[in-house]
Amino acid sequence: MTIDIDAFLETVTEAIRDKDVPVVDLIAVQTRDPFKVLVATVLSARTKDETTARASKKLFKLAPDKEGLAELSEEKIAKLIYPVGFYKNKARYLTKLPEALDRFDGRVPDTIEELITLPGVGRKTANLVVSVAFGKPAICVDTHVHRILNIWNYVKTDTPLKTEMALRKKLPEKHWITVNSILVAFGQSICRPISPHCDLCPLEENCPQHCVKPRKIPGTKRKKNQPLTLLSWNVNGIRAMEKKGFIDLLPDLDADVIGIQETKAQPDQLSDELKNIPGYTSFWHSAEKKGYSGVAFYSRVKPLSIREGIGEPEFDREGRVLTLEFDTFYLINIYFPNSGNHLKRLDFKLRFNDCLLKFAKELEKKKDVVLCGDFNVAHKEIDLTHPKANEKHAGFTPEERHWMDTFIEAGFIDTFRMFNREPGNYSWWSYRFNARAKNVGWRIDYFCVNRRAEKRVKKAEILKDVMGSDHCPVLLEIC
Ligand code: SF4
């Protein structure tokens, strides 16, 4: 099988759009400084990107240029860059670097032949510096590049050097500069060295998968017509939840898809463990403002498509809506705005609500729609312990409740009330006054479906015993 390299690289570029950029590329973009790119590249050999980033930051604080580096002793450099791989050797090379650069008038040279004369600089490093720091055609071949291009049968080589030589003859020059960063990001996230995530890979159908053993996902073998279990949970800060054992708890909940709200984190603040809980793939949509709002999904079912936001920048910058498309329905995960103290954000919320409703109605024209999330409103008096006392408070104002009426009249069903018409069922309790123990709460987390999907709903529940947040998860089973 011969692959179309242009199409493959274009697909991969799209697939890694939200993944971490390799650290050296990041430093190149941030600093535009060949010296820093060269030093970071030397540090990055056989070292995780996070470690390289930390070590580079510490070193550049004291040695932002050749002169600064010349003032540091080998021991000091070793201390600063620890624990990068082979830090003692790298410290030795870096000590010699300022003098070596003097041969080039104190500048970092821009050819491979000159670069490989510098201490600790091999062909791979030289290629990377030439392409990333100087934007000149050169093919850097990281192990990911070598591995993936062999998986694709694009080259048949047994060393990165042979891969580089084969690519020089074969790869169109327009890909030379970018191929390394694209395939490194792809190799770190999807086409991993061990158990590649072929189930998530957009190339799965066309990839030769030469010598590949794709990962197995527990729980993905579904019996025909087996309902899907969906959960929705406002976690009130995913990093705080991680400390409370979220990573171990998630598999125990045994849901096929979990929509979470109020993640209060941006992707670079999340640990690898949190992003890659075994058996699940995670999708994140964060607010621009740090530590605020944010929604995410963990799914063990591969979605057909993922959509962030609702197409309105005013709302989308707050990271409030994330939609997964499955074969027979869309699942919209929403963190509705809170009307706030003195109802300062009530107008904003009502405008958001209207846009959201329009968004859901548009999707409904194509296939069924399931909406889940923290709606930040108790619809009826039965949905909170003290309705009278809260009539003027955020989450129970006539305006917010009226919008819920409009939403239901527009053809959406509150699935919990299909099965349970009893009072005393809540999904949120204040942290104050021992409210949860006394069951003084509000039902503000919902699963709703469009009317056409009503007959597909098998179960809707509140999992009030699941602890960790001031909200508990709500559940929907749908076939
Ligand atoms: S299908 Fe699997 S082996 Fe092929 S590129 Fe994708 S993740 Fe890698």
Report on this model:
- With 479 residues, the chain is α+β, with helices and mostly antiparallel strands.
- It has two domains: 5-200, Endonuclease III, domain 1, CATH 1.10.340.30; 228-478, Endonuclease/exonuclease/phosphatase (Deoxyribonuclease I, Chain A, 4-Layer Sandwich), CATH 3.60.10.
- It has 20 helices and 14 strands.
- The protein has helices spanning 5-15, 23-31, 34-44, 49-62, 66-70, 74-81, 87-102, 112-115, 123-134, 143-151, 160-170, 176-189, 238-243, 246-253, 272-275, 313-316, 346-364, 398-409, 416-419, 435-438, and strands at 228-234, 257-261, 281-285, 295-299, 305-308, 321-325, 329-335, 368-374, 412-414, 428-429, 441-442, 445-450, 457-462, 474-478.
- Strands 3-4-2-1-14-13 form a six-stranded mixed beta sheet.
- Helix 3 (34-44) packs antiparallel against helix 9.
- The radius of gyration is 27 Å and the shape is elongated.
- The chain starts with a helix and ends with a strand.
- The relative contact order is 0.08.
- The protein binds iron/sulfur cluster.
- Residues 151, 190-191, 196-198, 201, 203-204, 207, 209, 212, 214 line the site of iron/sulfur cluster (SF4).
- Iron/sulfur cluster binds next to loops.
- GO terms for molecular function: 4 iron, 4 sulfur cluster binding; class I DNA-(apurinic or apyrimidinic site) endonuclease activity; DNA binding; DNA N-glycosylase activity; double-stranded DNA 3'-5' DNA exonuclease activity; metal ion binding; phosphoric diester hydrolase activity.
- One of its GO terms (biological process) is base-excision repair.
- It is an enzyme of class 4 (lyase).
- Belongs to the Nth/MutY family.
- Keywords: 4Fe-4S, DNA damage, DNA repair, DNA-binding, Glycosidase, Hydrolase, Iron, Iron-sulfur, Lyase, Magnesium, Manganese, Metal-binding.
